[in-house]
Amino acid sequence: MDPDTMTDAGADSAHRAGRLAWPAERLRAKALEIRRDIVTLLAKAQSGHSGGPLSCADFGTALFFHELSVDPANPAWPERDFWHFSIGHVTPVIYSLMAERGYFPLRDLMKFRAFDGHLQGHPSCQDTPGIEVSSGSLGQGLSVCCGVAMAARLDDHPRRVYCVMGDGEQQEGQIWEAAMFAGHRRLDNLCGIVDYNRKQIDGDVEDICGIRPLADKWRAFRWNVIECDGHDLDAVLAAFAAARAHRGQPSVILAHTVMGRGVSFMADDYRWHGKPPKMPEAEQALAELGTSYAAWSARLLAGGADRDAAPSPDGVGP
Amino acid sequence: MSAAIALPAKVEKKKTREGFGRALVALGEADPRIVVLVGDLVESTMTSFFAERFPERFIEVGIAEQNMTGIAAGLAAMGKIPFLATYGAFATCRAADQLRVTVAYSDLNVKIGGAHGGISVGPDGATHQAMEEISIIRSLPNMSMVVPCDYWETYKATLAAARHQGPVYIRFGREDVPVVTAEDTPFTLGRGEVFAGGEDLTIVACGVMVYEALRARATLLASGIAARVVDLHTLKPLDVALLERCARETGAIVTAEEHQVNGGLGGAVAEAVVRAHPVPMEFVAVMDRFGQSGKPDELMDAFGLRARDIVVAAERALERKRKA
Ligand SMILES: Cc1ncc(C[n+]2csc(CCOP(=O)(O)OP(=O)(O)O)c2C)c(N)n1
Ligand SMILES: [Mg+2]
User: Fold this and answer.
1) Domain residue spans in chain A?
2) Taking residues B208-214, what's their average pLDDT?
3) Distance from CA of B40 to the nearest CA of A (A)
4) According to the model, what pLDDT value does residue A318 have?
5) What is the model's pLDDT at position A313?
6) DSSP string spanning B206-242?
């Protein structure tokens, strides 16, 4: 489809075509698989971050399997929504979501951070199809998303823009420069999501350099603030709907989460921010998640025959 | 006067950043003006030792490198000796303007510990593999810069940075690296050290490449080539007199660094040699490309940062010297 020749109505319906809009029940099942993927690929790589990816798993699944309009078979589909993780270190959840959604084969997850794979430790648009802009240095993503939102406005394009940030990341000054810009410009096609897990590398966010009251800060920068339990998929869907409906201001969803959520010994413990589970730990984690390393790595290596293939909006694709 | 450094028979390995962390404690004991700042990377920068010993003089800034650089400047303006620590990528690139105007232009006594320099950072990939620090820091007036080769040299460089009046950048790596120097090996800020003698060519190295240079020397010796090995730990101010002497006496130079080829150690040495006594030069470095994820050893091999790469470069340099 050529965006230049499309009418507004045409653009809007084409835009919506790439949305899965799965119900909460189905998202819950997928989020469990995402967690299994995360633990398995980390155990294989023996390098990478566990805590943040697990706290992002539920709202991340809602974003990819309900909210976003994308065509994984054609990542450059002109009608697509734009999504960006400003917290580049959560690649385990990003790559799991991408593979499960069909951007690349599930088996690729088993080469996370490997020299001969395409899944870099931090997202690289030069290596991985579907990554739009590389990230990994914190605090820069919201500015990029402001630029994308401005481009959509200039082109009168229905694209929505989603930016996932960390709560520790809120300490970076550039976040607030971007926040001020988006508030000033009333970028209502922009939706921020903060993974509010209250932890960062060195400990509790409030002990290191407190960000409270976070909702008031975003409100003061002229944003529409929506708070929700980031693990309650009904609440997350309601938050996305509210953000979508809001006009005249950008929206930010403060998703209250638990670092390491879903694995008992990782939950709410900052020491799991940046390390992978050793193999016995991974086995325990995967047992808690209802599978085993052998079973789940075999599923990934098989390339995901049992993956729910999503129809492509263009009629091409997986 | 220089120490002869032999290739250790049995290689002991230690992290350079541990030398930084231990030296900070020694400094803290001796001088109440020492203050340490960190940007949410206590363990990675090994500032944890100082944090435990001197909690009142330890400032956790959070993830805000530009702010941290400014705070360090303010502390220095009031007579403190602040050491800030984060990954080198963020210490240099993220806070470049703060370093340039607030720290360097004002010539403030700020010390910067840049961790995770080089491709050997490994699986974290390109964003975290700092390989531009030498070019950036070297181009700022008033700055000094040290790239130590091992644990002991990092320890001594940290002590020397505190004694020096003015901003100093110290670069260290992530991995355990061979300890080639000893506690009593001489170290003077601004002076290179001849670690091994030789008259056929000079290998000038910094950081972990000093060990690779010593290994390359052993290989070259086996084919009758005597390479001099210079540990050029201080990139700024540069030991121009030593470099001129090496150019005159050996007639060919190979530089070796775990850093981008543009503007790094090789560039600094070339600038000095070209002015003083031009000789054929070859460069072992990262050839103008970003890093990638992989195991440290795998990456050192793939990016051509091994003793064998120095040997090949040395043979090229000797060939050109013969023809000249
Ligand atoms: C500019 C910059 N500074 C420091 C880092 C190192 N770093 C990576 S993740 C992280 C903590 C992030 O905290 P948060 O946003 O809360 O993410 P979480 O730990 O919850 O996953 C830090 C300091 C970085 N990647 N970029
Ligand atoms: Mg956090």
Assistant:
1) 3-302
2) 98
3) 5
4) 36
5) 59
6) -TTHHHHHHHHHHHHHHTT--EEEEE--EEES--HHH
* Tokens read off for A289: 């998640």
Contacts of A318 (CB under 8 A, 6+ apart): A72, A73, A102, A309, A310, A312
Burial-class residue B116 by CB neighbours within 10 Å (0-12, 13-18, 19+). Answer: buried
Question: Which 3 state secondary structure label does DSSP give A55?
Answer: helix
Q: Two tokens at A234?
A: 């009904």
Picking from A114, A120, A202, the nearest residue to B126 by CB comes out as A120
User: CB-based contact (8 Å) between B42 and chain A?
Assistant: yes
Tell me the ipTM for this assembly: 0.92
Helix H or strand E encompassing B86? strand B81-87
Can you give the pLDDT at residue A295?
Answer: 98
Write down the pLDDT at residue A16.
Answer: 79
Q: Is A138 in the pocket of ligand 1 (CB under 6 A)?
A: yes
Q: Are A303 and A105 in contact (CB under 8 A)?
A: yes
Which ligand has the nearest atom to the CA of A170? 1
DSSP letter, residue A200: E
- The rounded Å distance from CA A39 to ligand 2 centre is 18
For residue range A38-52, what is the model confidence (pLDDT) as tens digits?
999 999 999 999 999
Confidence of residue A10 (pLDDT cuts 50, 70, 90): low
Mutation choice for B interface testing from A86, A115, A143, A206 by most B CBs within 10 A: A115
Say whether B193-323 and B13-178 share the same fold.
yes
B212 belongs to the catalytic site: no
Q: pLDDT band for position A172 (50/70/90)?
A: very high
pLDDT > 80? residue A6: no
The CA distance from A63 to the nearest CA of chain B, in Å, is: 26
Q: Which B positions 104-123 lie with beta carbon below 8 A of chain A? A: 122-123
Q: What ligand 1 atom has the least distance to the C-alpha of A273?
A: 19
B156 CA → ligand 1 middle, Å: 30
- Reported as a pLDDT band with limits 50, 70 and 90, residue A17 is confident
**What integer best gives the mean pLDDT of chain B?**
97
Q: Which CATH superfamily is domain B13-178 in?
A: Thiamin diphosphate (ThDP)-binding fold, Pyr/PP domains (3.40.50.970)
Subunit contact B293:A121, Cβ cutoff 8 A: yes
Residue B178 half-sphere exposure toward CB, CA atoms < 13 A = 16
What is the CATH code of the structural domain delimited by B193-323? 3.40.50.920
- Rounded average pLDDT over A181-207: 98
> Which class is A3-302 in CATH?
alpha beta
Chain-chain contact of A124 with B67 (C-beta, under 8 angstroms): no
Q: Which atom of ligand 1 is nearest to the CA of A89?
A: 9
pLDDT surpasses 80 at A14: no
| CB of A273 shorter than 6 A to ligand 1 | yes
Q: How many residues does chain A have?
A: 318
